[in-house]
Input
Amino acid sequence: MKNLIILLFLFVLSAILSLYSAFLKKEQNKDQPLSVFAPVYYGNSFDEITALAPSVSARSAILTELQSGAVLYEKNADERLPMASTTKIMTSKIILSRMSLSDVVSVPKEAALIEGSSIYLKEGEKISVKDLLYGLLLESGNDAAYTLAHACAGSEGEFVKLMNEEAEKLKLYNTHFANPHGLSAENHYTTARDLASLTKAAMENDIFREIVSTKTYVSTSSDGVKRYFSNHNKLLKSESDIIGVKTCYTKAAGRCLVTAMSRSGSEYAAVTLDDRDDWRDHKNLFSYAFENFRSICVSKENVFAIYLQNRKFTCKESVYFACSSQSVPTLSYTFTFDGVSAVFTEFYADGAEMGKFCLSEVY
Output
């Protein structure tokens, strides 16, 4: 009888430990990246293509395939530098995740007094979040940044905490924020690589895309004040398929520019920091990208699926990788089931390992 009780106890303990282990694995899976694609597949044309990469005037630069995040060109991409008003990409990302465009907020005194670029807000004025975001991203209004930060978090300091928390979530390990607008400050820096990753995340929001690609916008506050905003990205007016993201300049940071471009199903993002010839550099980088690379979808959202143990596993996002425009690779996959709720998929092009993505169980 005693042995039976011991066996029963051990069985129950084993069951509890198994359930706990499964729970831990499921929790760990929450932090697993949906997709990881670092390399670019060149086929047999690596030397020919890389020899065509343009030189840029920027102190730091990077060119990425936007949908996969693959790096096609870089120059000092991990050097920590001032970011000026590219800061406002993070500011807008947080506002879009936490506030409604129709929210109407009051302009605090501090916002009306802030230095630098401005949309000339007045203390106590009532204005919508939507109008403030257009003023933030098109005219680079520092007063709009402060007003949004204060409305969202109660103070500039609390909003900066949200910015750095989001940077940590996005694994921007060489980025730190000290304010929501980008005026020069101690401990306020980023890198071209981190800024490209932030841009990729921001561009997943359709409202952000719409705002940064808008050439002109008319704002009317609740008090009847009209303002006319014009996008400062010159490439929007001279180049087709541009998605203007953010322009900026300060004496400390120099000219900084983040631009995205979409054409024929492929999207690319260029980041330059401290660049005296940024417009030309971005045009050349995009020419290099579209002439030599393309993106291929290896898993369509909620379409690519496998079945295991009478359970369905599918991808929650459309997954892409970058390859040379000259290559037509044969795709192949391997699958590893974690035994709980996810299948990790390795992806290959002509037998060369390219990356991985996660399939989650459909309940």
Residues 243 and 356 are 28 Å apart (CA to CA).
